[in-house]
Amino acid sequence: MRPKTPDYDPQIERYGLFVLLVVVYFSFYFNLGSVPLFDLDEGAFSEATREMLSSGNYITTYLGGELRFDKPILIYWLQALSVKLFGLNEFALRLPSAVAATAWAALLYLFTKRLFDAKTALLATLFMVSALQISVIAKAAIADALLNLWIAASMFAILLYIKSERKVWLYAAFAAIGFGMLTKGPVAVMIPFVVTFLYYIFKRDLKRWALSVFNPIGILVFLAVALPWYWMEYMDQGMKFIEGFFFKHNLSRFENSFEGHSGSILYYIPVLLVGTIPFTGLLIAAFLRIKSWIKSDTTLFLVLWFAFVFIFFSFSGTKLPHYVIYGYTPLFIIMALQFPSIKLPIWIVVPPALLMLLLIFLPEIANAMLPKIKDPYAQALIKESRALFGWRYKMEIALLLAALVIAWRMIEGNLSKAVVTGVVTLLLVNGTILPTYAALVQQPIKEAALFAKKHRLDVVMWGINVPSFMVYSQKIVPKRDPKPGEIVLTKITKLKEVALYQPIFKKYGIVLVRINSMKKGKE
User: Fold this and answer.
1) pLDDT tens track for 254-304
2) Dihedral pair phi/psi, residue 135, rounded to 5°
């Protein structure tokens, strides 16, 4: 699979880690705590952590005062520790994900350097930390960056065990799987279990697979890591935990569309193309050389890892964009191995350049579509947010586009161009896109919550599910239909059901109002 690579300047290896550290900063830490929490996921994880700290119950998680069996405990423990150290804020809640993503990148670099070479390791890690989806989840107060760290660690350890037959790597894999089980549950077991099974089928050596998978010491290591919390949770909640966690939030996610997250069998193709920006063009070029991928046992393992994740979740009833990330790690290595054979630099620069051009004209596109939009909330977002997408927004993107074009004309070498492309794209995403989007859809929630907290208002969520409101107001808020006299947080679209109300707060279609009376039929 690996193309013949020419010798390269030793300075690339000498300064490679420094370059990666710079890119890691812009991807994982730049503006980490400067934008509000995003709903639904960030708000839910963060509020569950806040309620854990408030109650002192570090075994069972709750959200809005109700049991939350969505995910195991590890991410909540790490977030709780971070909040104790840095206070209840966005930086503290997101820091565990950023640190986990940094460790994930370090593992990718060290593993790829060990099995291939330093240049391939630099490229693979650059593609990872620059990728749009990776940058987003690395700054998100959710479990996915941490889970991907354990999946990568377990799969790398397995492959090193296959190549060296040293039991220490096998036991390390079992430990990483155990931590993955504590992070997100059975998916951390399923991926290494199935991928190794497929690998040993190809190698016609299922006996060795069975001996590895059912290794008694390895199983004890796994149980020592994962079992204590599962046992304590079962003792605390009994069958409610088994039914809520294993059946509802794991088995049912594959069999059925869960919480409306469905899609066709082709769902993850556009996700893959968008998620790997700015190196989507390189990904496509690599796929055009797919026949050259499997040249060794190592690349066979990597291909099976990516292929299983992509195919399995394509057939899953529940589809979420971040599921396919479980298979991104081997894909970045494959892209790095193919990079020297890519002759046209245009493969690298076109996707981010097109994205920037689209974003520059996005306000005009939205305004042109406004007469056809019937949803009052969407109309309010477009009309009231015009100042967010004014000259400053356009100037920032235009300057980044100009910097990209100038750099490409002045810099020699595809590797240097790839580094510049990655940094410019990360500045675009984390310096302009995310802050602007957060100001539009999440800042109103944060401001409403802080207003409610300041004035000690008792609020009801009505027709809206934004757990971040509870994080910022530091108060459990019920979700239900309102009664006359109550203050509600809702979207302006729900006000058509109200006869009389008193406005309290309004921004970008989000309102706090006191309900005086409902229309007939809505009471």
Assistant:
1) 554 445 455 678 889 999 999 999 999 889 888 888 877 887 889 999 999
2) -60, -40
Mean pLDDT of the chain: 88
Higher pLDDT, 196 or 342: 196
Q: Which of 246-255, 292-301, 500-509, 512-521 has the lowest mean pLDDT?
A: 246-255
Q: Name residues whose C-beta falls within 8 Å of residue 230's C-beta, 6 or more positions apart in sequence.
A: 72, 181
| Cα distance between residue 176 and residue 168, in whole Å | 12
HSE value, Cβ hemisphere, 13 Å, CA-based, for 447: 16
- Composition of the chain by helix, strand, coil, percent to 5: 70, 5, 25
Question: Could you tell me which residues come within 8 angstroms of residue 311 by beta carbon, excluding any fewer than 6 positions away?
Answer: none
Q: By C-alpha distance, which of 120, 350, 344, 72 is closest to 231?
A: 72
Angle between helix 328-338 and helix 297-314 axes, rounded to 10 deg:
130
Please report, for the chain, the start and end positions of each structural domain, with discontinuous segments joined by +: 10-341, 346-434, 444-518
Lookup result for tokens 């900063």: 25
Whether residue 351 contacts residue 280, with contact meaning beta carbons closer than 8 Å, is answered with yes
What is the share, in percent, of the chain residues with pLDDT greater than 70?
Answer: 93
Return the H-helix or E-strand segment holding 212.
helix 206-213
Taking CA 191 as the corner, what is the angle to CA 295 and CA 159, rounded to the nearest 5 degrees?
45
Query: How are strands ordered across the β-sheet holding 498-507?
Result: 459-461, 487-491, 510-518, 498-507
Is the model's pLDDT at 2 over the cut of 60? no
What element of type H or E holds 488?
strand 487-491
Q: Is the Cβ–Cβ distance between 360 and 394 less than 8 Å?
A: yes
* pLDDT tens string 207-234: 999 999 999 999 999 999 999 999 999 8
The answer to whether 201 touches 301, Cβ cutoff 8 Å, is no
74-86 helix and 41-55 helix, angle to the nearest 10 degrees: 70
Provide CB contacts within 8 A for 165, sequence distance 6+: none
At 3, the pLDDT band (50, 70, 90 cuts) reads very low
Whether residue 332 has pLDDT greater than 80: yes
> What is the three-state SS of 4-41?
CCCCCCHHHHHHHHHHHHHHHHHHHHCCCCCCCCCCCH
CA-closest candidate to residue 141, choices 289, 237, 37? 37
Q: How far is CA 209 from CA 170, 177, 202, 243, in A?
A: 12, 16, 11, 31
Residues, the chain:
523
Contact 141, 79 (CB under 8 A): yes
Helix (H/G/I), strand (E/B), else coil: 71 = coil
Structure tokens at 41: 């996921």
pLDDT, tens digit (0-9, with 9 covering 90-100), for 361-372: 988 888 888 888
